[in-house]
Amino acid sequence: MGKQVALQFEFQANQTFDSFFFGNNAEIISQLQRLAEGGSEQQIYVWGETGSGKSHLLQACCQQAKLLGKQPFYLQFPKDKLPEPEILDGLDMLELVCLDDIQNIAGHPLWQQSLFNFYNRHRQNNHQLLLAADCPPKYLAFELTDLKTRMAWGLTMKIQALRDDELIAALTHKAHYLGFDIPASVGRFLLHHYVHELPALWLLLEKIDRATLAAQRKLTIPFLKKILAEEQGF
């Protein structure tokens, strides 16, 4: 049995279920909330295109589980530099483990074997696992076939990308969560003239929030242009 590890991951305070715009993903949210509460699903695999909110939802699930007194752990596999496989030692003792961007261990046989061994221990302990990738399990380019098969053992769900007409509603929702209002006309201007990728859009909203708070001004198109002009790259 692996040694017990301390809870060591950084909570992203703004990545909660409340701050996520559901769109057509209400069923996924419901399933993940039940998972965080210790529901009947032992494994959930979510997939979707880059920027669809996978990392946000994994973070939200961990935070919800932590609030309920459980032991969650979040681990992301970066594309450029993977951590050492030993980071998995002891994680099989934790009640909920969330593994993000698992497609990035393709081409790394040692990591795949380590994840396979962890997977078996964690499942034998009857603990829960949340996985995220950019493709369905059958398209994971894993050399270890048994690991690829296990990725499909549980519930698999696709995160639906927001349609263009939903982006304004998502902007309004996110801005309201941050504590300011964004008129529909300003939202349309922002989407049409500047940013359309969601991760960059959310980061920009946080900058807009700070600017409106500092200036004690409502957000208008002229004020938005001023904020963007001060941001490098616009």
From TrEMBL:
Pfam families in UniProt: Bac_DnaA (PF00308), Hda_lid (PF22688)
Question: What is one GO biological process annotated to this record?
Answer: negative regulation of DNA-templated DNA replication initiation
Q: In the record, which residues are listed under signal peptide?
A: none
Q: Which residues form the Hda lid domain?
A: 164-228
Start and end residues of each Chromosomal replication initiator protein DnaA ATPAse domain: 94-157
Report the InterPro entries cross-referenced here: DnaA_dom (IPR013317), Hda (IPR017788), Hda_lid (IPR055199), P-loop_NTPase (IPR027417)
Per its record, how is this protein called by name?
DnaA regulatory inactivator Hda
